[in-house]
Amino acid sequence: MGLDKEIKHLPEVLQDNEIICYLTSGLIEGNTWLIVCTNKRVIFLDKGLLYGLEQLEISLDKINSISQKRGLMLGEIAIWDGARRIRTKNVRKDTLKPFVDATNKAIEAMKNATINNVSTGRGTEDVAAQIEKLADLHNKNILTDEEFQAKKKQLLGL
């Protein structure tokens, strides 16, 4: 599908310590895009023939849901971030599940790292500030009710 330009440009887009978990490609509004899941975000890249680079990204902590739809040979991935849905069509069927699984795994790893950072504290934060952070994560649906209550009890020493 002609993604050489996007793949060559990818290292310039990646941040320090950002690791690629999985990548695939598909059509967004008639153009072929490279879709990359990293340990920090999902990146969509389209480097045109005559124009520059078009880039969309969604931080993993902003993803509300990701879905896949399978056809006979091709499929579709949709990612919701609360404000918008990015729908990618004509994704190779054999890359659908691995991409969605890798994205969900990266979201879970980020969520667990955030929970651990909040629960261990940074030495200068008080319990109320840590509970506020947990509440924020809970309100963003990053933490479930059970996870929020368990960490809150742990912080309060109950």
Describe it for me?
It is a single chain. The chain has about 160 residues and is an alpha+beta fold. It has 2 domains: about 5-110, PH-domain like; about 120-155. Helices cover about 40% and strands about 35% of the residues. The strands form 2 sheets. Strands 1-2-3-4 form a 4-stranded antiparallel sheet. β3 (about 40-45) and β4 (about 55-60) form a beta hairpin. The chain starts with a helix and ends with a helix. The model has no long low-confidence stretch (mean pLDDT about 85).
SSE topology sketch:
Blueprint: H1 4-13, E1 20-28, E2 31-38, E3 41-47, E4 53-59, E5 65-70, E6 74-80, E7 85-92, H2 93-120, H3 127-139, H4 145-156
Antiparallel strand pairs: 1-2, 2-3, 3-4, 5-6, 6-7
Helicity level, as a percent range?
Answer: 25-40%
Order of helices and strands: HEEEEEEEHHH
Classified by CATH, the class of the largest domain is Mainly Beta
Query: How much is the average pLDDT?
Result: 87
Q: What portion of residues belong to β-strands?
A: 25-35%
- Tell me which CATH architecture of the largest domain applies here: Roll
Rg of Cα set:
18 Å
Whole-Å distance between the termini? Answer: 57 Å
Q: Total number of helical segments?
A: 4
The total beta strand count reads: 7
Can you tell me the CATH superfamily of the largest domain?
Answer: Pleckstrin-homology domain (PH domain)/Phosphotyrosine-binding domain (PTB)
Largest sheet report? 4 strands, antiparallel
Q: Could you please say which CATH topology of the largest domain applies here?
A: PH-domain like
Low-pLDDT regions: none
Tell me the domain tally.
2
